[in-house]
């Protein structure tokens, strides 16, 4: 299994950026670069998911989304992966459990947009995720208020790091999370699909 998964050394801090990437776009790259810089990560792995359990309509075929993502990403420390397809995991908690077992000594940070934080309490075993890995939240336009007043934000307000300490997130014992306001590119996968640019 390890030969088809990305390489990471014990002691490294890896940001995990999951999603359907349907389609991937420059906004995903921008967020990944900001996460690398602001959270002090060694690498960011895109986890291009086989499908999103919270969405009824399936995304484009995985092979197409992977090819589009790899064509888009040129940063040497951002790696596009289909880890979940190889692991056979469907939910984030399952994926994190397997990765922590496969990569002893590697520190993982779960990355998400503020829109995901707003509905995080709907995710399977979301509290286990918060208790198991640090979480980095990157604000997107229009999602800041709902994210900050979300169930997850309220439940774990005691574990929130100030933005000034964002670079320490990966080395902080969970539960730990950090909310960053970052300059965002006004582009989304749903808008690209709505324009008919991704069938």
UniProtKB/TrEMBL annotation:
Report which reactions are catalysed by this protein: nicotinate beta-D-ribonucleotide + ATP + H(+) = deamido-NAD(+) + diphosphate
- Give the signal peptide as a residue range, or say none if absent: none
Do the record's keywords include Cell membrane? no
**What does the record give under GO molecular function?**
ATP binding; nicotinate-nucleotide adenylyltransferase activity
Keyword Nucleotide-binding assigned: yes
Q: Which residues form a coiled coil?
A: none
What does the UniProt keyword field contain? ATP-binding, NAD, Nucleotide-binding, Nucleotidyltransferase, Pyridine nucleotide biosynthesis, Transferase
The protein's enzyme class = transferase
Q: What pathway does the annotation place this protein in?
A: Cofactor biosynthesis; NAD(+) biosynthesis; deamido-NAD(+) from nicotinate D-ribonucleotide: step 1/1
Q: Which InterPro entries match?
A: Cyt_trans-like, NadD/NMNAT
- List, for all copies, the residue spans of the domain called Cytidyltransferase-like: 16-195
* An annotated GO BP: NAD+ biosynthetic process
Its EC number(s): 2.7.7.18
Function summary: Catalyzes the reversible adenylation of nicotinate mononucleotide (NaMN) to nicotinic acid adenine dinucleotide (NaAD).
Query: What family is this?
Result: Belongs to the NadD family.
Q: Which HAMAP family match?
A: NaMN_adenylyltr
Q: Which NCBIfam families match?
A: cyt_tran_rel, nicotinate (nicotinamide) nucleotide adenylyltransferase, PRK00071.2-2, PRK00071.2-4
Protein name, please? Probable nicotinate-nucleotide adenylyltransferase
Question: Lineage of the native species?
Answer: Bacteria, Pseudomonadati, Pseudomonadota, Alphaproteobacteria, Rhodobacterales
Q: Which gene encodes it?
A: nadD
């Amino acid at each position: 299994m390890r030969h088809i998964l990305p390489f990471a050394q014990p002691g490294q801090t890896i940001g995990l950026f999951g999603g359907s990437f349907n389609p991937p776009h420059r906004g995903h790259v921008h967020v990944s670069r900001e996460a690398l810089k602001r959270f002090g990560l060694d690498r960011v792995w895109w986890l291009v998911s086989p499908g999103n359990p919270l969405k009824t309509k399936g995304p484009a075929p995985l092979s197409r989304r992977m090819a589009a993502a790899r064509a888009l990403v040129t940063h040497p420390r951002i790696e596009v992966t289909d880890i979940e397809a190889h692991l056979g995991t469907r939910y984030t908690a399952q994926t994190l459990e397997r990765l922590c077992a496969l990569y002893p000594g590697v520190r993982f940070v779960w990355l998400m947009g503020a829109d995901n934080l707003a509905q995080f309490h709907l995710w399977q075993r979301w509290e286990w995720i918060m208790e198991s890995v640090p979480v980095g939240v990157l604000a997107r336009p229009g999602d800041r208020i709902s994210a900050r007043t979300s169930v997850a934000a309220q439940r774990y307000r005691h574990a929130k790091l100030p933005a000034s300490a964002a670079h320490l997130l990966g080395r902080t014992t969970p539960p730990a999370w950090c909310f960053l306001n970052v300059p965002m590119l006004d582009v989304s996968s749903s808008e690209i699909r709505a324009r008919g640019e991704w069938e």
